[in-house]
Amino acid sequence: MSQKLTARAFFFNAKTDYLPYYKNFTLKVEEDATAKELLGLIEAQNSDFSYPKQKLIMKINGLVVEAKEKVATIVERLGTELTIEPVNSYRSNNGLKINDDDFMQSYALLEPYATESDLKYYKTLYALHYASETSLFDREYIGDAILVLAHKMISEGNEHKEAILDAITSAHSGLLDCEYENNLFNAQSYDAAITALKDMAKKDENEHPSLLDMMKNRFCKEKEEKVVSKAKRTIKNIEDLERKHIAYYAGLKNENENVISQIILDMETKEVSITRKNKLSGVSIFEDNKTLALKKAGTTMLEAYDTGAEVLVVENEACYEMFENNFAQIEKVVGRKMIGLEIISADDFVAQASTVEV
Fold it and tell me: What CATH number has the domain bearing residue 124?
């Protein structure tokens, strides 16, 4: 039994093209076909479509998919309209073929402390490396895969623990820039491993303070800590809320998503959909890399703004406060003004919506 699909495929040849472009294809795919065979059908219709025959991975609707994945499984999860791209369009040199030198460049950070077994394991994380969310915001990011390898090496008792932690934290964009998200189509979550590494790195930092910190502790009297009660946040109201286009940022998936959408529907106004609805936006890395955190927040806010939203409802309170309190700085980081975009917490939105008469 065959299935009809619509594929929007990525094209780019570094030798002939200035910019990438996309072409649409209508395909009939057999039920047991793989992702690799799907690419073959596109190539049969257009010989300019290019993909690697080895180490084949691709991005489909934003998720990294391996060659052997069944199309039926992909369709079941992502639907019949598929956007097919290289795992890193910036590194594309011909269609889905990429320059993957960065994969082993990251391994070089830990190579002095690694065994043949470690290298073998690292090579199994090829897809994970290119599924790294942080790479979308910093091209020099070392990748999630090397962090997972570092955790494995330390967990197995590698005697070079401190050197390993130093290697992955002292890189231009390393461990402390990672706000892990599972962007693989099929994968176990490595969130616990990344969190454990960060805890180790920060504990090590506290146990081995810098000379400056030691001087401060030696010659400066510490002020007594004062317990300051956090002032209760003022409830925000938005004028003419029921007449405005509203986008909803949920962060990680939560049970309130359908509730907010239903409230917007009941208000008889328009909900603006954003692709970053369930992505992270920098809260967990704010203290370690404020600029990167604001860049991530700005990407979410700009998408809402550019798709016509006048109000952005933010589910998570910490996210709301970061968006609201750093609005001007976020505009500066992303280089855009978002005039007219108002931010409101989900709690305040629900409270105000309950008073709206339609």
Answer: 1.10.1060
Q: How is residue 264 written in tokens? A: 């917007």
Q: Which domain holds residue 266?
A: 241-353
Q: Let me know whether 342 and 255 are in one domain.
A: yes
Report the distance separating Cα 326 and Cα 314, nearest Å. 14
What are phi and psi for residue 248, nearest 5 degrees? -120, 125
- State how far the alpha carbon of 43 is from the alpha carbons of 27, 46, 52, 144, in Å: 11, 5, 12, 31
Q: Which residues of 225-236 are buried (b: 16+ CB within 10 A; e: fewer)?
A: eeeeeeeeeeeb
Rounded CA Rg of the chain: 24
Strand partners, 26: 6
> Tens of pLDDT along 167-217?
999 999 999 999 999 999 987 889 999 999 999 998 866 565 554 455 445
Query: Which has more pLDDT, 257 or 213?
Result: 257
Whole-angstrom distance, CA of residue 119 vs CA of residue 124: 9
Confidence of residue 17 (pLDDT cuts 50, 70, 90): very high
Tell me the C-alpha distance between 319 and 346, whole Å: 11
Instruction: Give domain status of residue 111, yes or no.
Output: yes
Task: Confirm if 91 and 98 have CB atoms less than 8 A apart.
Answer: yes
**Domains of the chain: total:** 3
Do 74 and 65 form a contact (C-beta atoms < 8 A)? yes
- The residues near 116 (Cβ < 8 Å, ≥ 6 apart) are none
pLDDT tens, position by position, 45-100: 999 999 999 999 999 999 999 999 999 999 999 999 999 999 999 999 999 999 99
**pLDDT digit string (tens) for 18-55?**
999 999 999 999 989 999 999 999 999 999 999 999 99
CA torsion, ordered 338, 340, 343, 349, to nearest 10 deg: -150
Q: Is residue 246 part of a domain?
A: yes
Which regions of the chain does DSSP assign to beta strands (E)? 2-11, 21-30, 57-60, 63-66, 81-85, 92-94, 97-98, 246-249, 271-272, 311-314, 342-345
